[in-house]
Amino acid sequence: MAVETSRASFRRFRPDDAGQVKALVDRTVDTCYDPAYPAEARAFFKQHHSCDSVLEDAGRGLTIVAVAGGEVVGTGTLVDGGIRRVFVAPECQGQGVGGGLMDRLEEEAMGLESIELDASLVSLGFYLHRGYQVVRAASIAVAGGKTLDYFVMRKPARSPQAGSDEQIEDRTPASDGE
Ligand SMILES: CC(C)(COP(=O)(O)OP(=O)(O)OC[C@H]1O[C@@H](n2cnc3c(N)ncnc32)[C@H](O)[C@@H]1OP(=O)(O)O)[C@@H](O)C(=O)NCCC(=O)NCCS
Q1: For residues 119 and 121, what is the distance between their CA atoms, to the nearest angstrom?
Q2: N or C: which end of the chain has fewer CB within 10 A?
Q3: pLDDT at 171 over 80
Q4: pLDDT at 173
């Protein structure tokens, strides 16, 4: 699927986005986590990021979606003091969508002492680039005696004084001009 992301817009998640978010996560895991993760770990990721957990986290925290061409092409969530489920569609990576999601989530986290997240093996460089530091390497035992390895990372949250006035837009798809 070719999507022009230079005009990606960011808005708050709406419950009817859940199916697209779930499909985006599954497709990104299938495409980007092979061969970094064994099939058993990829299955664990997809089960972990269920439609129910997408909806629950969005209800308790703040979920942002990136939209381009009328499609959800990226997502990320701030919940319980941490940033979770940051995924960008494979064909839209490397175009600023992930950075745009993180800018907005970190903006929302202003006032917290620090921001924690779990980084996949393939996203470690992205988070190091954003100033996160590895707190520890971690591992979950999955089926077939395999492991799902990841890194717990943290960085200090920005103080409110250092923040910008940028607001998260909540535009309807029609007003996205797509
Ligand atoms: C990791 C991910 C979210 C990054 O999103 P993206 O849209 O490709 O990232 P961007 O294009 O916004 O990149 C922003 C910056 O990070 C840098 N960057 C992106 N991925 C990087 C990597 N793997 N290593 C080092 N730097 C990276 C870019 O070069 C860019 O730098 P710049 O601002 O100096 O130009 C995306 O690649 C992804 O979804 N990966 C697979 C799923 C995943 O692992 N998600 C994390 C779950 S823990």
Answers
A1: 6
A2: N
A3: no
A4: 37
